[in-house]
Amino acid sequence: MVDSIGNEILSEIYRVNSLHVRLIRLDAGLVRPMRIVPAMEEHLAFIAALRARDEDKAIKSISEHIERSRARVLDAMLGSNQSGSMKTRTASA
What we know:
Order of helices and strands: HHHH
Structural class: mainly alpha
Strand content: under 5%
Shape: flat
Number of helices: 4
Radius of gyration: 15 Å
Helix content: over 70%
Oligomer: single chain
């Protein structure tokens, strides 16, 4: 249905968001308020920037949210211990 609109950007956003929802459902035992609350706060920051019509802030907030979401998903999938050691290796590389 989203693809029928003909907007490639919207279709890609939908696919990414759909993947996030599926990951959350699959890993529901790993998703805790400590992960969900920050994501919701990031959503609210983005919405506030949109309401204020602050394009730079909106771009910055959604970009940060995407990066933090990716990190949260990886942390959930890899487990805190593995991702912590991965962060250490990445930081030292």
